[in-house]
């Protein structure tokens, strides 16, 4: 190994501090009026991926595209791209993270009056690996969600055709975005959500209708609520012993729980809420965490509560900050180290400035106390006598005929995404950058040891020693927001000589051994001209292909044994992409 440039190298004396994997921050989306609702998901490294669509495209029908941005655990932008395809208006609906931190995006695709759905697989660097268009009939683009369980991807949506009854569908794909099976069912209305259930099946909500399917899509039960309370707006959330839903009526929200068979179990006390659903997730096995908008006059605040599996409100707190909000739909995700990241979309109609319309907030509910915001406990609940009746629902369920329209559709990715975030609360210190550049000779590799197990490779999430052999840039970080340190290892290598070899003898006797003369090279030969001369200098044959082999014949007749002169003029591309030209002049013996 030969070091040719050392930009900066430090010998770190690491102190005995514990790595903090999260950081408080508050960011707003510049020009929020340009975008549809955003949703977020979290990778295994704690990074946040944000998905959204262009509102302008929806209004005009032109330049339909989706936007993806990835931020690290400290709120720093890693990359931001827009994605579009010629001839189609594509609209973002939902996002989920696969087991290898692949990003799956689900949405609608329109071409004139033709409506389709798409499933896109994007890798950690934002590069599209799969984009598949599917025909399902005419789709309703207002309600979609996806979920991932193992290597299965579940997509939920609505089918809307002017000539038939509106239908819901559940479709299952593998992790390469290939369609596996699906079911459609009726009746449904616009709006809803579907989840994987603990028994491997699916539970779908649409209006007051509930559908429970088993793991292969057979209907287990379906019901409808006869209560006067409006249909649930959030859930289902699978929790120990059943499923939790949220309902809102007259700016008062509450949660209720159904058994695995759909029987009513309990309802929680009511609490003040805006008329948008809370973002709800399971926290452990026996409680849920809900983040919601709390009315505060013309604007609203942000609050959260925890509810036990028995319906008791365990905690209620509001965000104390100098900012006011106009919170609408909320998306959130919970990290392993106890940080909650909240994405909020603007209410319709939005309140005037200076209220924040669209924001991204990351906070520790247990420890956050900074100059920008903190959480303060309070209690405001009301009695609730909600006890609905659920009766069986007469359901039509059929196979879903979903066909692949295009399995390799070209997607244009642009790094000039117009999405940008503005810091309303800058909390992160500057990151220490450590850079090492290395040049390897042909055949050598570079063994790199990270300073400690607090550091991980950002492309793998692992911290072990690593042998580098391919050219490129490799990054490692301690993922700390209080003492951030990043290593960048840039590897270049000298090109190995491209050997071109022609044997000096062969025996074209039909015995299956050494019957042909081939040109060999470890590099990619892009052009070749092969000429064979007889013992007196006469030209026996000439060929201009790169895969030419000589079987010991000329003009269809076998040549006699003896020495022949073979001349090969070639052009090849070496391992670093450079073009080389050369010539091989070789006496070749034919033996019979």
In short:
Helix content is 1%, strand content 54%. It has 592 residues and is mostly beta strands. Among the domains are: 1-23 and 428-494, Immunoglobulin-like (Sandwich); 227-388, no CATH class; 500-590, Immunoglobulin-like.
How far is the first residue's CA from the last residue's CA?
Answer: 49 Å
Strand content: over 45%
Helical fraction equals under 10%
Number of helices: 1
Helices and strands, with pairings:
Blueprint: E1 2-8, E2 25-29, E3 39-42, E4 48-53, H1 55-60, E5 66-71, E6 77-84, E7 89-97, E8 103-111, E9 114-122, E10 128-135, E11 139-149, E12 152-159, E13 167-174, E14 179-186, E15 193-196, E16 202-206, E17 209-213, E18 219-225, E19 234-239, E20 242-249, E21 252-258, E22 264-267, E23 271-272, E24 279-283, E25 287-296, E26 299-308, E27 313-321, E28 327-334, E29 339-346, E30 359-364, E31 373-377, E32 390-392, E33 396-399, E34 403-406, E35 412-414, E36 421-425, E37 432-440, E38 446-448, E39 456-457, E40 466-468, E41 472-477, E42 485-493, E43 500-501, E44 505-506, E45 517-518, E46 520-521, E47 524-533, E48 539-543, E49 549-550, E50 553-554, E51 557-558, E52 562-573, E53 579-590
Parallel strand pairs: 37-42, 44-53
Antiparallel strand pairs: 1-37, 2-30, 2-36, 3-4, 4-5, 5-6, 6-35, 7-8, 8-9, 9-10, 10-34, 11-12, 12-13, 13-14, 14-33, 15-16, 16-17, 17-18, 18-32, 19-20, 20-21, 21-22, 21-23, 24-25, 25-26, 26-27, 27-31, 28-29, 29-30, 38-40, 39-41, 41-42, 43-46, 45-49, 47-48, 47-52, 50-51, 52-53
